[in-house]
Amino acid sequence: MTTRAVAGGRRSFARRAVGAQSAVWRLDGVMLVAVAALCVIGTLLVWSSTRTWAPGSTGLVKKHILNLLIGTLLCGAAAMIDHRAMRAYSPLVFLVSLAGLVMVVTPLGATINGSHSWILLGGGFAVQPSEFAKLGLLLIIAMLLAQPAEGSDRPRDLDVVLALVAALLTMGLVMLQPDLGTALVLAVITAAALIIGGVRKRWIALLVLVASAGVFSVFHFQMLEPYQVARFTAFIDPGVDPRGVGYNSTQSLIAIGSGQLFGKGLLGGGQTTGRFVPEQHTDFIFTVAGEEFGFLGSVTIVLLLGVVLLRGLKIARQCDDRFGMLAAGTIVCWFAFQTFVNVGMTIGIMPITGLPLPFVSYGGTATFANLIAVGILQSIRIREQSFD
Amino acid sequence: MTRMRTRLFILHVLVLALLVVLAVRLWQVQVVRGEEFVTKATETRTRAVIVPAVRGQILDSSGRPLVRNQTSLVVSVDRNALLRMKDGGVEVLRKLSTVLNQPVKQLQDRIRPCGPGISKPCWTGSPYQPVPIERKAGTRQALQILERQEEFPGITAEIQSVRQYPGGKAGAQMLGYLGPVTEAELEKREGLKAAFSGVDLAGRDGLEEVYDEVLRGKSGLRRVQVDRMGKAIGVEQQVPSLAGDHLITSIDARLQEVVEGALHKAMKGAPQADGGAAVVLDARTGRVLALASAPSYDPAVWAHGITTTGYKRLLSEESGKPLVSRAINGQFAPGSTFKVSSVAAMLRAGYPLNGTYDCPGSYMVGDRAFNNFRGIGLGTLSLHTALVKSCDTIFYRSAYEQYLRDGGRNPKKNAKEVFANTARAFGFGKPTGVDLPGESSGRIPDRAWKKNMWALTSATNCKRAQTGYPEVTDAARAAFLKLLAQENCAEGFVLRPGDSANFSIGQGDVLVTPLQLARAYAALVSDGKVRSPRIGWARVRPDGTLVERYDVPVVGRLPISEKERLYIKNALSQVPSDGTAAGAFSGFPMDKISIGGKTGTAEVWGKQDTSWFASFAPTGNPRFVVVAMVSQGGMGAQTAAPAVREIYEGIYGIKRQAVLPDGKPAAKLPKFSPDGTVAGG
């Protein structure tokens, strides 16, 4: 199988590009349609939730569309790069993303909406290096775990340790911002890669133990910010303080629930118009869908995300090389986690965590990272079928 | 690779499971519990704003307004908004205090919610509603607040309608006032209860309270869409308010003015006078034509939100407690005006109507001598003359005889108590049932009452009988009080001979209100029927349509025959010309308008006498009953009778313009033009 993969790599870049027709045939169209649909729905929701206050009413939608266009280009570029080349560049990508995280901690970093996770680029544009860090970590771990030990299909212990070091380093920098949500995504990415990568069960058991100890000590030594603890308290009992910490979950439930089966129609959501749910164009965008498109609309979004996830898993399973399989599987876990936590928090089955909904939420860097990940999935898909 | 595929398969199952969880939960939230969240969304997204109904007016018998409405700018404070500020809103209140020219402390007092231990001034309304703090703000003040909202967060200025009183102080206690409705009251109301609003007012006293339901109307509702910050972004629902009905009363505004003036003058003429009341009834119908109490106050203090000092002043002894209506709450010994009841009691007890009675200067009741006025004997009199000249000893004697017949100090099982029971039949000792709140019942001190009082007071009295009154500096008074305590302790439960004698001439423990006396006289001079007086005459819609006419209920009959009734009436008809009130009515054209009546001078221990005059006119077929009372006013003929004379002069236009030129109270309800205004009013 290695030979096949190498054979694919021998095809010149130029030919692949010129022979677009054949490459297009090999793309996972279903996934792309689902992603495109999510982006369109997301654009509508961003419009609905920002039109009352954004500059010129369409200011944010325009920016969102621009982000999507850039994201599409990045997606295409990622899809065109052979994932084996990508594997070679992984350390570089990882280091660049680490550098970005370090920059955030230095005076170059900026605070937007209370989270110190931005680097301003000027012209109203800003990037959130932690979003790219997801990609960077994902790639480096996939690279490390993709080389099995001699005569085994399990990763080498050294590589596992290196992967963990990379993960802890990234998470540590993210926690400095602090951005608990992203740190959790990084943890999930790491765990997913280790599990998919075939790491021994005792490693996994050890990790579970360490993670539990970590969670315990976080709470025990009060390493969390008070607001983060409050979010968990409010999750367990939203009635605790409906005007304070419980406000977000109460209001988002009201918005979604009041959408009922068919919703109130685009722009027809009173809760959305009244801006009762905070951050309703980013982290809580699902509430807009719930209110304006109803159960049918919100379930459609969940289904479309499900299509992306399941197609991603199919790509992973059909891939012939460990790197592709690992990368694809881990991307799916990342998306799955973010989807479940984001939708879950708006409907009261997960605590409030600052995570955007993939492809739907407003947010430039996240959109880029997500679409690049889709590009990577496509890249893996294109090559895995080269010799079919 | 197989291991990886297996794990990916597990992942596949996991992802599917998570998706199903999300879908199921969405179904639960949006479809199963959808309705519940729609309701909650409506609650959070909208604010119900109560649009208060325009309150109906209170009109006099010709349609002149006694209470009407006027719009004014009202400044309100949202206490919760202030509390959320770092300094508790002190800074904002300080700025407001300069704009409104009210002390900060006063503003703070007025916005705190009333509760246990927090008495007025405080806010009786809901703690979540803005508190109206200035109800007659000037345009400048309102603009200062509205244009600099950033400096006055939580403060609003808006147009509201407030009560206005064209008669000023006239009939203030009778008209009553408005206060913020309490949440408990709102709960009881029918209809819109969407929100508790500080602008909702309820009648707190007088006609405003009794006819609150009539006048209030129905509040409208405006459901306003608001955003997260509470900023209104649109109107979702609007239910217009329904204006309240008008109350037409039998009060004649001009007569009321005359009565107030006469009372005021009488009070001024008696240097010690500390309170007075005057009542004018329509003798034939029992309707109230004027009802005055002095001292009075300007009810506008309520309409514009009462101040700390303003409220204290209304309750202080110094101001004479102008909130109390002496006409229905003033309880005083009636003096000789009470003799109409005693004569009736005598007749019931079998004393002959045409008999002659000895009127000595003094009469021994038990072991104590009871004197006539100034101890002068008047010889042998008929009952007629006994009333005209106001002989006391005749009544002492008959009352004492009846007392003995009932068993004296050791009463028989079924003592008749004819004097007390006749007084009750005249309507004394219980509220008249007039359409005003909180009326006093007066007091008939019979044997049962004595026993009750003794049960309540014997402990204190017996203690005082021992210790005396060391805190009383006046030695004579202290000795008297101690003696009284000893007497009361020993036999306070016994009706003593002196008690019965005092009662017969309206002295001692008997207490009546001016309105009780007036309706007793109305029964006596009209048809013998005791009525429950009424001020409210009719309820009409704002456009003048009659909704309901209020009848004057008959609640009893005088316990005497028609012949006896006319006999007493005739006797009284002579009092102003030949009797005790002759001086007060000298020069009054009795040939044109003959007036009957009875003076009363009731002694009050340690104070000046209570001055009474109960009257009716014209004597032949009476139209009016006029009663005046001045507490600490001296003799009846001296203070009350001249006041009554002035009232008649006003009614009939003697030496001045007549209020009721044809000598008749209004018999028909005022006519309304189609636009709701009163024709000719």
TrEMBL record, chain A:
It is a multi-pass membrane protein. It catalyses: [GlcNAc-(1->4)-Mur2Ac(oyl-L-Ala-gamma-D-Glu-L-Lys-D-Ala-D-Ala)](n)-di-trans,octa-cis-undecaprenyl diphosphate + beta-D-GlcNAc-(1->4)-Mur2Ac(oyl-L-Ala-gamma-D-Glu-L-Lys-D-Ala-D-Ala)-di-trans,octa-cis-undecaprenyl diphosphate = [GlcNAc-(1->4)-Mur2Ac(oyl-L-Ala-gamma-D-Glu-L-Lys-D-Ala-D-Ala)](n+1)-di-trans,octa-cis-undecaprenyl diphosphate + di-trans,octa-cis-undecaprenyl diphosphate + H(+). Pfam families: FTSW_RODA_SPOVE. The chain crosses the membrane at residues 23-45, 65-81, 93-112, 118-146, 158-176, 182-199, 204-223, 293-313, 325-353, 359-377. GO terms for molecular function: lipid-linked peptidoglycan transporter activity; peptidoglycan glycosyltransferase activity. Its main location: membrane. It is found in: Membrane. Pathway: Cell wall biogenesis; peptidoglycan biosynthesis. This is peptidoglycan glycosyltransferase. It comes from Nonomuraea cavernae.
Automatic annotation (TrEMBL), chain B:
It comes from the Bacteria. Its main location: membrane. One of its GO terms (molecular function) is penicillin binding. InterPro entries: Beta-lactam/transpept, Beta-lactam/transpept-like, PBP_dimer, PBP_dimer_sf, PCN-bd_Tpept, Penicillin-binding_protein_2. It is a single-pass membrane protein. It is found in: Cell membrane; Membrane. SUPFAM superfamilies: beta-lactamase/transpeptidase-like (SSF56601), Penicillin binding protein dimerisation domain (SSF56519). One of its GO terms (cellular component) is plasma membrane. GO terms for biological process: cell wall organization; peptidoglycan biosynthetic process; proteolysis; regulation of cell shape. NCBIfam families: pbp2_mrdA. Belongs to the transpeptidase family. This is Penicillin-binding protein 2.
